[in-house]
Sequence to fold (749 residues):
Amino acid sequence: MAIIKLPECKVNQLKEICKSFNHDSGELINVLHKAQEVFGYLPAEVQEIVAKELNVSVAHVYGVVSFYSFFTMTPKGRFPISICMGTACYVRGAEKVLDEFRRELGVKVGESTPDGRYSLACLRCVGACGLAPVVMVGEKVYGRVAPEDVKGILAEYSNL
Amino acid sequence: METIKLTIDKKNIEVEKGTTVLKAAQKAGIDIPSLCYFSLDGMKIENKPGGCRVCVVEVEGRRNLAPACATEVSEGMVIKTNSMRVLNARRTVLELILSDHPFDCLVCAKSGNCELQSLAHRMGVREIPYQGAQSTYRKDTSPSIIRDIDKCIMCRRCEMMCNDVQTVGALSAVNRGFMAVVAPAFEMNLEKSPCTYCGQCVAVCPTGALTEVDHSREVIKALADPTKTVIVQTAPAVRAALGEEFGLKAGTLVTGKMVSALRELGFDYVFDTDFAADLTIMEEGTELLERLTRYLNGDKQVRLPILTSCCPAWVNFFEHNFPELKDVPSTARSPQQMFGSIAKTYFAKKLNIDRKDLVVVSIMPCLAKKYECQRDEFKVDGNPDVDFSLSTRELANLIKLANIDFHALPESEFDLPLGESTGAGVIFGTTGGVIEAAVRTAYELYTQKPLPKITFEELRGLDGIRSATVDFDGLKLNIGIAHGLGNARKLLEEVRDGKSHFHAIEIMACPGGCIGGGGQPLHHGDVDILRARQKAIYLEDANKTIRKSHENPYIIKLYEEFLGQPLSEKAHHLLHTHYFDKSTQIIVE
Fold:
């Protein structure tokens, strides 16, 4: 095992999660979902613990984590920004909105700002196609976003 | 047995229920091309992700084409394996695979033995109509294995071997779509993963994505250096497979020709790892008897069962996965390393040369041996006991490179003293052989009586886990045998949980033992080749006049002149080793 740099209480929480799924390797994806809720992301150490608890190889766990775009190995920012790239949002200019966020924040998709405040991600359809293009910041949904709106959205969080 | 009647390419055939279209066609003499599919029948090894779609066939009444490897036969099925529609689909699939494959066949290590290349040849592909991006990935070189993922076609055979058969778990498919690759966790290099270097991934890889690290150039250099004395040792399983590389039937013993070839290559002395196998039996057999005697005398500290330690991939496996059991295996070094150690002390002294001027080369059916000879504990002042380990395949290439007509070679004998061996040493090359050799010696040492029967049929075969009870003149010795690391894991878990009733267990990492090693000529999934090699090994044993390790006159002499007794201080120093806890090896960077 690697040297664990994770808080012990969270590690115990993770072990409890594995236990609640009976250490069943078939529940790997569910365990990873819960683990990401606890840690905010899935660093290598977390994957190693999950592998050990579910008795599967670390390579297998990493295979699943790297396959699903929902799982991330980089910590999310305090305000995670997601731009919908579903068909409806895409055709109504989501990419231009994404470009604007990238320019404003100076980060690529999947990265966080150095101060840890924002992270940028893409997702596929939040089920609000009527509002396309859609942006989410945390749990809050913004509809019909134009590139010109990006500065204003970010301003809402700059003093929080 | 329930049977199914069906028609394939207008041939009426009847097969067992549950048979796949691919196997049914094979029975009818129809060879449907396949790529990702792989099996070793009768050994519970099968890869059928149905992913490549090369084996598609047309099934009457079915709308889409069916993958023959993953489609079971049903009553009255009418199948066409060569219709226009099938041929077009198959070609398109192949062209798409080739469109993301490097065109460097001329310099590829797998050229001439590549299943993708053969398929392209068979299908007569002359151009690739699809132009587009090619996925690229960094090359990863470990002590034994090179991963060149640009050549990977995602057949998943290596993943199946590494996870399902060997339960090593070093490799997994990671990422998605065009970015998908087979890699260790967190895309670390293989060296940082729990890889045991068993080489079974290399043995099944259809392309050049997984190959061995080739040391033949270094060996050629040593042979050309007049200041060096270069000696070679050959593992038992090599002689039973080398002939295949020269078109001989599987199972043809080429011991004498191999010795001649090595001499023509310029080795100063051609010796036999079988000699060191006999030495291993002296040490390991004595260790078994010592532990057994202590156990029978009520010593509670003694760890039983004793586990064999000849197989370097197996050693890596328990160091990674069962470090808490690292005092259970025999401390005896593997024959390769015992040979190196004796060569660079006893033999170097006989020649009156410095160990640095003696180059020891080993010819092994194995890729883990390359890693083993680089381990620090097998070096003296940085000079390794075994300098280079070549695979059977590399030796075959060397022979071809040197313009040697293998078929025309005379048969010749190994040099002395390190080339004399017994039948017990030979059978080290197959699953069950090490323990049979050990039993032959331990029986006579323990009972002080000659063996009533030299062979132990109950220890032979190809079942993954076997067990037998051998009667040592009243003492019933329970013996377990496992080959394939997944089978080994099962026996290990019993040992860990205190449920094992065995006194001694033999473990070999590769399916079939060394005859099926990762460095052997590729069998392409033909299990009959493994059977033939095994038969050849036992034939070589039967042909030997001396068949018990402790009767090898040069082993007796070695103890008299140099080592003293088995397990003596000198023997401990030169022929035994210790193991490490490698479970901390998963390093996150």
The beta strands of chain A are 79-84, 118-123, 135-137, 140-142. Helices of chain A lie at 8-20, 28-39, 44-54, 58-67, 87-91, 94-105, 150-158. Residues 8-20 of chain A form the longest helix (13 residues).
